[in-house]
Amino acid sequence: MKEKLRINGGVRLEGEVTVSGGKNAAVAIIPAALLADSPSTIENIPDINDVHVIIEMLRWLGAQVEFRENTMWIDPRTVDKYNPPYELASRMRASYYFAPVLLGVFRRAEVPLPGGCDIGARPIDQTVKGMCALGAKVETLGGVLVAQADELIGGDIYLDMPSVGATVNSMLTAVSASGTTCIHNAAKEPHIVDLANFLSSMGAVVKGAGTDVIRIRGGRPLHGANYTVVPDQIETGTLMIAAAATAGDVVISGVIPTHMEALSAKLLEMGVNVQSEDDWIRVRSNGHFRAVNVKTQGYPGFPTDLQQPLSALLTVANGTSIVTETIFESRFRFLDELRKMGANVRVIESTAIINGVERLVGARVNATDLRAGAAMVIAALMAEGTTEIGGVGYILRGYERFDEKLRGIGASVEKIRVSEN
Ligand code: EPZ
Fold this sequence. Notes:
31% of the residues lie in helices and 26% in strands. By secondary structure, it is of the alpha+beta class. The strands form six sheets. It has a four-stranded mixed β-sheet with strand order 21-22-1-23, covered by helices on one side. Strands 2-14-16-15 form a four-stranded mixed β-sheet. It has a four-stranded mixed β-sheet with strand order 4-5-3-13, covered by helices on one side. A hairpin with a 2-residue loop joins strand 4 and strand 5. Helix 5 (125-133) runs parallel beside helix 6.
């Protein structure tokens, strides 16, 4: 049996929905807890498949872990392995965050190269560069990242691009390196700042997170901490786009509006009404949208993870939109699925040309990756008729109780089980 989402389109979304904790923050913060000499309690962790994979990895390494009602308790004191198995590590992108952590604890780590969404080559050369800059010897043998260091010493890391993963891995290495590390050309995403805040709450000295240069004074003992993960920027954006796509009126609560500025500005440009205050954003729309141009950038630019959901909305905008994906080299595959629903789109290298059509029509489509799945949900919510989306596992990897949340604001969506053949 496999699962699909069946969505009847054309229903206005109305009401209030609360976002979950940030997936990309949680998957960076949880491994960091192993660097402490005592237990940590981390709240607002989304109950999603990626988190369950991480829990399996923590337990495999020997840590004690409890996870209930979005709160995780981790006792790292019984960790006694530095080589998580391929079966676990290959199931998500963030598994390689354990490499710098285990290197810091054992001065050795053997971590299979990460899995994750098929949106491009996703090399890890910048992660290797960061770890080597602090004294590690790193090689990839048979798909396994093998790192060892007699001593980790702080120094300068110059990233070739503001890679989120390389920034996370450099930070996680630097806290175990004696002396000061400066990470130049660092990523500035909200989850980088959240990781810095968690490390600081453990007793690390981390300055400059959210800017191009992060300074860390490492080599100090780190203790367990009580921490609450930031709300998920990308889930917030996906729900904002869903509200607009259905000519709805939705309040999304538990958010940090400043994290959403690039998307809010783009939706306003399209003629969508966006209001925000404190910890909520209200999105209203009349269902008619101006075409716009979008270029993905690192934070605070337009997030690549919202390119796919917004591109789905642009398929019914008035006019032609140009979407340029500058971060990943193959993040347009989902457009083939949108064409099945009547979208008029062409891709030339890293640019999608989207000619708005009157409406989309429900069809049987597939999610090709996590945010492609979100894009298919957006398309299905506004399409005429019924859409069945295969590959639901991708969507549930990154969105907690997504179908339940959408039903809570009026969507006609259900998870169905179908036989494999
Ligand atoms: C993180 O991936 C996120 N994943 C992605 O979210 C997100 O799309 C991406 O950052 C950009 O914001 C997690 O946080 C778990 P990068 P990551 O390193 O770290 C190239 C989602 O939907 N690059 O910033 O893999 C790389 O090929 C996922 O939640 C190198 O060339 O992204 C890409 O083209 C999808 N060498 C670009 O940089 C490197 O060593 C950005 O990659 C590292 C990256």
